[in-house]
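Cross-check.
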Amino acid sequence: MISKLLVPTDGSKAAQKAAVYAIELAKQLKASVIVLSVIDRRSFTGQTVPSTRTARHVIEPVEDYLREAAELYAGEIKKLCDKNGVRSQTVITSGHPVEDIVKAASRAKADLIIMGSHGKSALTAAVLGSVTYGVIHKETKIPVLIVRR
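Predicted model, tokenized:
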């Protein structure tokens, strides 16, 4: 029986669509949702965000900016869960998205990972590095449901 769904989000339209699907499924199954947002540690190396791109209009470290964004994305999905009467929790990690998604699903004993896909070709995914592609090809016994954009 499916009682726990893990829903990774990066704030994209594909991730939002997958979250809506997961919430509807969770309602039907009376399951809970774990919303995961992973801050990709490879994306910053002591850089700063220009002041015009931040809410406070100050220069802030990229890691802080990405953490705020991750909390916002996860928070939006949590609000959708609350609105639909679905139990949920949010988890924010910092690391490699593919590894962290698989580890979080295993740690939480999730029965299903539901994530969005941008629909890139296998060649584009191999060259650019698709998180969805990485998760479905990672050694895990947890099923993965892909929601296409």
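The chain is about 40% helix and 25% strand. The mean pLDDT is 86. Passed to J.P. for a second look.
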